[in-house]
Amino acid sequence: MPVWLIAGLWGLVGASSLIVGVTIAFCFKMPRAVTTGIMSFGCGVLISAVAYDLLEDGFQEGGIWPIVAGAIAGSVSYAIADLLVSRNGAHHRKQSGTEQQSAAEGGGLVIAVGSLLDGIPESIVLGLGLLSGQGVSIAMFAAIFLSNLPEGLSSALGMRRAGRSATYIFGLWIGIAVLSGLAALAGAAFLGGASPQLLAVVNAVAAGALLTMVINTMIPEAVEGDHKATGVLAVLGLLVAFALSNLQH
């Protein structure tokens, strides 16, 4: 099976937790503290993956300057794109409170764009390990899966309150999952012959975007829901991801 196809399948599986979150929203009533607790744990997992599976590995392959340039580019690009999306009605896309209803009423397309903004760099990263011959990073896969779960859950809850049908909600999020898989596929297909420096830049771009996403969107929402438990759960997530990363190596 071609590497690019394998990468696409991994990207699709990583994004499938969006659908799991939507399914949970329709089948169970979950306290907000539970959803934000999952998000807090996911923050720690993502931070560990950024530090050890993206920046450190990229540095070993390409040196410091590709890492610096890529991380700044990824962070600034995410911040600008997030600002543009937020101004068009998706600024509550990760929230599980009543504010999500207004975001849902603003249109599913805007929410979908906001979710893809988070998912594309995550999915591309999954394929980079395959290109290097190291396989998919278990820690990065866990980070993507865990961070997608509360996003799908909270957004589906808001869209239900806004009166959206199950067909609309599931169709929207299945589409997002498929596009995330395509992003992983495209990343592997077009970066097959890339130099170590270019791969380091791509790693760093994803790292900068992911870390900015964690700080701008996930941590504030997690703190609002978990209060003092957020830090503890984030540390646990970091330790689990760090252990998985070291077991893999």
Could you explain how this protein is built, in words?
The protein is mainly α and 249 residues long. The chain is 86% helix and 0% strand. The model is unreliable at 96-108 (pLDDT under 50). The chain contains nine helices and no strands.
Key terms:
249 residues; mainly alpha; 86% helix
Q: Treating each run of at least 4 consecutive H or I residues as one helix, how many helices?
A: 9
Helix content class: over 70%
How does the overall form come out from the CA principal axes? globular
Which stretches are poorly predicted, pLDDT < 50 over at least 5 residues? 96-108
Q: Based on helices, strands and strand pairing, what is the structural class?
A: mainly alpha
Calculate the mean pLDDT score and round it: 78
Topology as H/E string? HHHHHHHHH
**Portion in strands:** under 5%
Rg, rounded, reads 17 Å
Total E-strand runs: 0
Report how far apart the termini are: 24 Å
What composes the largest sheet?
none
Question: What's this, in brief?
Answer:
The protein has helices at residues 3-27, 32-62, 64-90, 99-105, 108-132, 138-161, 166-190, 196-226, 229-248. It is 86% helix and 0% strand. The longest helix is centred in the first third of the chain and has 31 residues, at 32-62.
